[in-house]
User: What shape does this take?
Amino acid sequence: MMRHIFMLVDCAHFYVSCERVFQVALREKPTIILSNNDSRIVALSTEAKRLSLKRGQPLFRCQKIIRDHDVQVFSSNYALYAVMSQRVMGILAEFCPRVEVYSIDEAWAELSGMAIEDLTAFGRTVKARVYQYTGIPVRVAIATSKCLTKIGCEVLKQDERYGDVLDLTAFTEEQLDALLAQVEVEDVWGVGRAYARFLGNYGVHSAKDLKHAEERWIRRHLTVTGARIQAELKGVSCFPLEERRPPKQEIICAKSFGREITSEDELLEAVSTYTARVAEKLREQDGLCGQLTVFIRTNPFAANVPHYANEFTIDLPHPTAFTPQLLKQARAALHAIYRDGFRYAKAGVVLGKITPLHLVQPDLFGEVDLHKRYRQAKLMALVDALNRIFGRGTLVFATQGRHHTWRMRLERLSQRFTTSWQELLTIEG
Amino acid sequence: MIVVDRALTVAHNKIVVARVGEHLVLKRVKVRQRKIFLCPDPPGYPVIELRKDDEIWGVVTHCIHRLP
Assistant: This one.
């Protein structure tokens, strides 16, 4: 059997690093990035962690620490992060032909069969190149299974003594066990909190315990997934590289508003905007959808006001990716559930029953005008291209509205350094 | 407006953007006695020695002027 070798490249506090590339004064300053609507912490620098700030904390709870320690606070600048992520992933692809982009800040590369003599040196080269080209620091872990590379990066994150490149293939069995003993079972990739609690009850606390647990017992209680994780901990690869993600079965756009909405007109603007967005995503993956759901709700935590939440699903007569058609359905769905007298805080649109374009059945009874379809697809391709080249919102449908005063709060957004001519980095003096 | 290429390696006489402490500066690189100096082209600006903690941010490849 061929031995696999995986390299996991993990960008260190990625959102913060992106901001620091262009705002060099943020270096070494405690910095946090907020979630949508500026409500919670989604990312933080090492310095911020030392101030005992944590991911997921609501912003209003941390105001004192922020003031006392001059913590730098930013809204999520996804336009910037997406571009920086693409740059990092592009560099990895230059090194390795087989890459799986796992998330915005993590990717695996399969090194098996690449005849690399010194894996640590290779990892260092990758790290240095990514840093020079992008300014983003990364951690690199190399091992014979994905699960072990995850553990490698976790160890690098927690223990600075290991440096920033860790080649677990060079570890002896004893060294590896000593390392696994330091990792809590909950932090093992694929082991959820529920399984971790269950395992804890049976004395399985660390990754090492899980690795050496009786295989039959694991299979019985943790099913085949548990058995695979255990094998991965033993260095046997069970989760192969997934170079192409399967297309999504559902596409969602749901956002809280920056202020509460009390009229159907404004709600329609929001729902239309989200519909246009999901339709664009649908076309990006060459899909058609057969179902559209709209949901709206008030703020469930607000006291002393009436609450309301509802959703409406429409089955479309023919699968489509044509925005005007979807907008029409979304308007009908919204109208069916909209009630006066409530303060709406969030809305969302979900596209379901998605089929790839090439799998759609030709229509036996000729109800679908193929020529019309073709023109619709061409029109949408043009709209998408214009919005891609000249920026989102260049060409919008009238129901989407223009002013969007309900849009979520992003009060501390940094410049869009990489996607806007007006917001390029400037150097003074 | 200038174009900066981070992928290029810095060399003597190249114009670069460098991070000095918490600031970005635009200077010409001069290598003297194994030390790197950041020198201004126009007179009247300071010469800065690149310290260990500082770094070259990128190499300038183009400069775009607005015509009068």
User: Anything to note?
Assistant: The mean pLDDT of chain B is 93. Chain B has one domain: 2-63.
